[in-house]
Amino acid sequence: MESVNNLCWCIFGLVTMLTYPSKCDLEAEPTCLSRFDYDYKMLQKLLSLEQTIQNLKDSLAESKNKIEELSKEVIDSGSVYIRWGRNKCEDNAQVIYKGFTAGKKYSDKGSGSDTICLPEDPSWLNYSTSNDPRGTVYGTEININEPSGVFENKVHDQDLPCVACHIKKGSVIMIPGRGHCYSGWNLEYAGYLMTEYQGHSSPNNHLCVDHHPDFIHGGAGNNDEHILYLTMSKCGSLPCPPYANDKELACVVCSK
Predict the structure, then answer these.
(1) I need a surface site. Which of 35, 99, 115, 136 has the fewest CB within 10 A?
(2) In DSSP terms, which residues pair with 229 in a beta bridge?
């Protein structure tokens, strides 16, 4: 008789659970200890677990797609670099603007310490001819004894152009001290590392000037304003080898 009562209660519990599934708490202790009731609850837990796993897979796939889309956007947006000493980009790059290499006068203690690429077609906002203190910017020329044994053509006192280039690649780097790009990187151009003369009154940044430079038409005068010199390596804290004393440093601009 007791077994019959237990069976009845189990049947009643099962019917109640199937009729009101939302009231069945799977985390609570089971009210019916039959094998069928236990297996049913375990099946529900397994189905819930499978759904959770599927949701995680869907979320992971969505995140992966988003990362791929963002990576594609970075590649499509591309990168920009200045080609110093040339007035055209390589075939794989688009010209943003052509211009003139410019910077501070070598003897000035103030003004900007960097070299800039001024566009050949400037436009103006408000301006004045005031004599109030200002920074100044001059065109750039190369100072080098000829024959240099470095550049293939004579470059002394030549004024330098520049061009801003856009490429559809995500990364661009200028590597000083190299004449070739590392494996996996594409060469944009190669040249020589140039900067201010060490004995002048103020510093300038380092530029990678193209090893086949173009020149500004009519710009061969010795103006001695913003001047670029070759850069040599010096042994000491800089290990030699691999470097060597008094050798002009090459440079490359590479993309990927």
Answers:
(1) 35
(2) 195
Token pair belonging to 93: 């790059």
Contact 99, 118 (CB under 8 A): yes
Going by pLDDT thresholds of 50, 70 and 90, the confidence category of residue 131 is confident
The Cα 166–Cα 79 span in angstroms is 6
Q: Give the CA distances from residue 40 to residues 50, 131, 169, 254, in Å, rounded to whole numbers and listed in that order.
A: 15, 92, 57, 64
Residues facing residue 119 across a β-bridge: 99
Q: How far apart are CA 137 and CA 135, in angstroms?
A: 7
pTM for this structure?
A: 0.67
Are 112 and 204 in contact, with CB atoms under 8 Å apart?
Answer: no
Tokens for 68, please give them.
Answer: 């791929």
| DSSP state, residue 159 | B
What phi and psi values does residue 163 have, to the nearest 5 degrees? -150, 135
154, 146 Cβ separation under 8 angstroms: yes
Query: Cα separation of 39 and 219, whole Å?
Result: 91
Torsion sign across C-alpha atoms 71, 76, 82, 86: positive
- How far, in Å, CA of 8 to CA of 53, rounded? 37
Give the residue from 152, 145, 89, 150 showing the smallest Cα distance to 117: 89
For the purposes of burial, counting CB atoms within 10 Å of the CB of 104, is it exposed (0-12), middle (13-18) or buried (19 or more)? buried
Residues 6+ apart with CB under 8 A from 205: 113, 114, 115, 195
